[in-house]
């Protein structure tokens, strides 16, 4: 009886080994495919989103203390920090997170070759084609492994926009120490306008981005779990 049990056990073991070596990846449920978004991408994305949102809401409070555009202030109820000093603390704290996390995101994307693979090739024709398809409800969302041309463009724009935000912020914060940067921004006052406009581009991106994610909730799960 004991010998039969052992024999059955060995047979099952051999069957499993055989299945694992002969099944195609599609048939094999014991092996897991690599994640759509690697863990480092997910971590840097969510840290980046947190830092960027803290910077935007606290930045609005800082703007209100000395508005650039006469008569235009942001309702204090939707700002962060409570008062100018508090908002500056939030803004500077999140700035370090945004900068170091942003460097990690870019470095890992470039070093792994993911940046070229995910965002290129990209052409105006493809953007127009996918934009038209999206507006007429014909854009397919079945393959989450590939970004469509509109997504590629939007993500590239927001990455560049965040760099402009950081550089114009540096020109405002340390305008004496970085005279070249200040002059490239068109002077101190102009750097404030550049900073504000870049913030407006990011705010518009966030509204559209979150709306798009809500339309395809599976993409949200993928950015959380990787699959
Ligand atoms: C300031 C805020 C944000 C910025 C700057 C931002 C930026 C980005 C970028 C650049 C990507 C592409 C990443 C890559 O593949 O390298 C991305 C993807 C994604 N983001 Fe955000 N994001 C922000 C906020 C959010 C929020 C609040 C959500 C959730 C509601 C979200 C959900 C996603 C999802 C689900 C994807 C993957 C889309 C897909 O696979 O189709 N993001 N985001």
Secondary structure: elements and pairs:
Layout: H1 2-22, H2 39-65, H3 84-112, H4 114-119, H5 124-135, H6 149-173, H7 179-184, H8 188-215, H9 217-225
Explain how this protein is built.
GO terms for molecular function: electron transfer activity; heme binding. One of its GO terms (biological process) is respiratory electron transport chain. Keywords: Cell membrane, Membrane, Plasmid, Transmembrane, Transmembrane helix. It is a multi-pass membrane protein. The chain starts with a helix and ends with a helix. The chain has 227 residues and is an all-alpha fold. About 4% of the residues have low confidence. It has 9 helices and no strands. It has 2 domains: 31 residues; 191 residues, Fumarate Reductase Cytochrome B subunit (Up-down Bundle).
Question: In a nutshell, what does this entry contain?
Answer:
The chain is 72% helix and 0% strand. The protein has helices spanning 2-22, 39-65, 84-112, 114-119, 124-135, 149-173, 179-184, 188-215, 217-225.
Assess the beta-strand content as a share of residues.
under 5%
Q: Which ligands are bound?
A: protoporphyrin IX containing FE
Under CATH at level 1, the class of the largest domain stands as Mainly Alpha
User: What's the CATH superfamily of the largest domain, by name?
Assistant: Transmembrane di-heme cytochromes, Chain C
- What general outline do the C-alpha atoms trace? globular
């Amino acid at each position: 009886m004991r010998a039969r049990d052992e024999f059955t056990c060995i047979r099952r073991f051999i069957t499993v080994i055989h299945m694992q070596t002969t099944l195609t990846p599609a048939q094999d449920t014991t092996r897991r495919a690599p994640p759509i978004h690697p863990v480092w991408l997910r971590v840097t994305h969510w840290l980046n989103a947190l830092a960027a949102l803290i910077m935007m809401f606290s930045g609005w409070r800082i703007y209100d203390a000395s508005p650039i555009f006469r008569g235009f202030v942001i309702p204090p109820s939707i700002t962060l920090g409570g008062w100018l000093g508090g908002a500056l603390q939030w803004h500077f704290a999140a700035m370090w997170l945004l900068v170091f996390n942003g460097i990690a995101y870019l470095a890992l994307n470039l070093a792994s070759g993911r940046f070229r693979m995910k965002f290129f090739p990209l052409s105006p024709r493809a953007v127009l084609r996918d934009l038209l398809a999206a507006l007429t409800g014909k854009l397919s969302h079945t393959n989450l492994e590939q970004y469509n041309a509109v997504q590629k463009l939007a993500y590239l724009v927001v990455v560049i926009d965040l760099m402009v935000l950081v550089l114009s912020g540096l020109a405002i914060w340390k305008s004496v120490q970085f005279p070249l940067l200040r002059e490239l921004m068109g002077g101190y006052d102009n750097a404030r306008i550049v900073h504000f406009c870049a913030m407006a581009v990011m705010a518009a991106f966030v509204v559209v981005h979150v709306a798009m994610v809500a339309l395809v909730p599976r993409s949200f799960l993928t950015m959380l779990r990787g699959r």
